[in-house]
Specification:
The chain is an alpha/beta fold. It has two domains: about 5-245, Rossmann fold; about 265-365, Tyrosyl-Transfer RNA Synthetase (Orthogonal Bundle), CATH 1.10.240.10. Helix content is about 55%, strand content about 10%. The chain is built from 18 helices and seven strands. The chain has a seven-stranded mixed sheet with strand order 1-2-7-6-3-4-5, with helices on both faces. α6 (about 115-120) packs antiparallel against α11 (about 190-210). Residues about 1-20 have low confidence and may be disordered. The structure holds iron/sulfur cluster. Iron/sulfur cluster binds near residues 287, 300, 301, 305 and 338.
Amino acid sequence: MVEGILLGEFEVTPYSVTGRVDYDKLVEKFGLALIDDELIEEFGFPHKLLLLRYFYAHRDLDKIIKYYKEHGRFAIVSGRGASEHIHIAHVLLFRFVLELQKRFNAFLFVPISEDEKYFAKQELYFEDARRFAIENLIDLIAIGLGKKDTEVLIDTLTMNAKIYGLAAKIAKKITLNTIKAVYGFPNETNIGLHFYPAIQAAHILYPTAEKDLPSLVVISVDQDPHMRVARDVAARLSLFKPAALESRFLKGLLGENKMDASNPQSAIYINDSPNLVRRKIWRAFTGGQPTISEQRKRGGNPDICTVYEYNAFFFDTLEQAKNKYIKCRKGELICGECKLELIERMQKFLEEHKRKREKARDRIYDFLDIDINSYLS
Ligand code: SF4
């Protein structure tokens, strides 16, 4: 057994933190496999976000494990669709990716696809999408992205012949019918979105086609349609089918299933001021009772609590998360305490990130061979 797995009390499953009902449907709909304790142990990476089932589903992770055991190496692909500043769900995913890379000494490919967002968002200017691509990369460097064994691509700024050549080969294998069946675009949709899946599949298959390494793609579950296209094409190009580790969504501050990047009240952005963070968290949805005395008597519900989730996923150890869960259920915790703790932790994290970001700006030239200043103005 993997050590440290939590819960067990109160007849909860490891999904208690994630609320599994909707996610089960996605697993069934997309044909994914659930991550279980045995697989985590086999993987040899008992990361908190796996144990808590934030990453809860996969495609062919078992094959990556087998390949790693035989060859000592694989590739990770995890990118950004840039159209605004990153928020903390992106931070969570990317921190995981970097730990995964370190643990397995993996090659990491980070494609930044501002073109997709430009095609998808009517109101987004091309120049703004590019600017955010660079800003997002600076954030990723500040989070810890290093140049060893890593490549970064910004689609409309540093696209290269290898990726575009692969995308061309892929495009020839994908019909319009396939794209419509997978993505459901109506006829009125611009052709950029119809073509983009070829670029995305090229991102996913780049380490396999160019470096002979199978790709493990780390994404949130809503990105799975790209996996289906890439896996289908890989088979037809006689390439190793890419595997995936898929996360659920980080809850929105208002209690929504998914942090909504287009609603500033729903997300904590990387550049939010300390006061704004305080206000947002103080108003956040919790699983608490209407009054403190009721909370003491009946206990709270951490399963639906945004504040519990952020504390558990970002800051707590497994043991701390487990204790907090039990105390909340027993009415030994009140929401104000949890919120104050989260505010303090989040403010500190964002303040440190801001400092690291200043240094990261200069390090962007480790990854890009362009003058970023003309794109940032
Ligand atoms: Fe959430 Fe804490 Fe309130 Fe429990 S006490 S519902 S964990 S904020």
